[in-house]
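Internal QA ticket QA-208
Title: Verify multi-chain structure generation after dependency bump
Assignee: T.L.

Test input:
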Amino acid sequence: MWYKLTIPLILCFVMGLLAFVHEFVPHPWSAAFREEMTTWFRIMGGFAMFIGLYALLHLHVSRIRRQQAGWGYSAFVFLGAVLTIGAGVFEEIRAAVHDVPESAFSPFDWLYDYVQVPCQATVFSILAFFMASAAFRTFRARNLGAALLLISAVVVMFGRVPISEEVGRLAGAWDIFPRAADWLMEYPNMAVKRAIYIGISLGAISQSLRVLFGIERSYLGGGS
Amino acid sequence: MSSPPSQAALRRLAVTRRIIYLLVAIAVAVPTLSDLACDFKPSPWAEKVFKKVESLKPGSPILLSFDFDPAAMEELHPMGLALLRHCFKNDLHPILMTHWPSGVGISKQIIEKAAKERGKVSGKDYVFLGFKPGDYNLILNMGESLQGAFDKDFYKQPTQGMPALEGVRSLKDIPLVIDLAAGTAIEMWIAYGRDRFGFDLGAGCTAVITPDLYPFLSSGQLIGVLGGLRGAADYETLLKRPDRATKGMQAQSSTHVLIILLILGANVHYLSRRMGAYAKG
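Actual output:
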């Protein structure tokens, strides 16, 4: 109990308080503390990447072992990770053992350029197809609010592309659509975004205080 | 509770979806493969970023943070290339980094391409720092000591005494930072970078993120923003060097018009059905 609950809560309170207070102390010790603390955070971030990798591989290994539905995809994840890590480690060892010219074939770069880049770019690009289909099926002027949203979306979508300027020229005011789109973005959109940001910030402050004072303990794990 | 859709309705939906996919493919492919062109005026926010870069004296450092991966490359790759071409054209010293491990390769490709075009040399004319974990802690670290946060560049050369970093000890010595992001890195650069260390901050992002940044433009925390492919095309136009983004504008125009027509068509059909049902009582 002492190790699992009390010490983490004390650590969290002390470090949280120090991180908060040092912002208001213009002293070299405060700056040194910040530098030291951020370096520690970065080191912990590096370890967190290893933990993330372990968690990912552990999850997919258990899926393969249990032969759950879609376990073939997990095998593919595993294969990809092993190949990429293997290529990276191989290159580091090769560079350490002897001088490698810049033009030398790099399996890691090959995997990145010819597997990761096209795969990720393709997945993101096909969103255009889904978005067009979803917009066609769901954008309906069912009531006043939905109609306003629909009109705004059409104005912004049209005002953001060059063809709107060509159409505007025919109407005698080339920038009528871009200006309408800008107005929607700079006034109604910004007002809503500000409200959302203020809400998020207040929520973050209250949540931070709850963590600092040990009221919120879910980050310690172990259920309630 | 509404009844589940019939088999016929589901079949009709599947056919409609295929037709829409085909139309989108045509709307993208035809302008991309043709040499169509249309003029457009760059947005004022893009102009502000361009003018700020233009105002820097030759030899000035400029930090570029490419916080994206290949998923966002269609929008942000041309933007990054245009920005770096501008930096090298004006003999600035770009310092490039990324917060995304999967963004290292793409950042390297962009800077090496732009540098090769102008015969610029790593370490002398530019620095590629690569990736380090830490997110906002890395920014805070860089605000204390850039060389402390990155003791070596991507090519394993020590950053201490590097000619391209002459006079740069921390973020406080950098007049302009531009973050190209596909996530929430811009907000991070505002809160932990710009507001603490006082540099000017410009942004470039995927179109879907752009609306989130308007409050920061209005408050002056961002000097300007390049939004999506249009932002990249705006920058290419301002640089007077049209490239992939400018060409992509034709495909984007036709796809947007197609989506608008689909939405309007679907609504005309929906309203006519509702009016028909209303007339029948």
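Spot checks passed. Chain A touches chain B through 56 residues (CB under 8 Å).
Status: verified.
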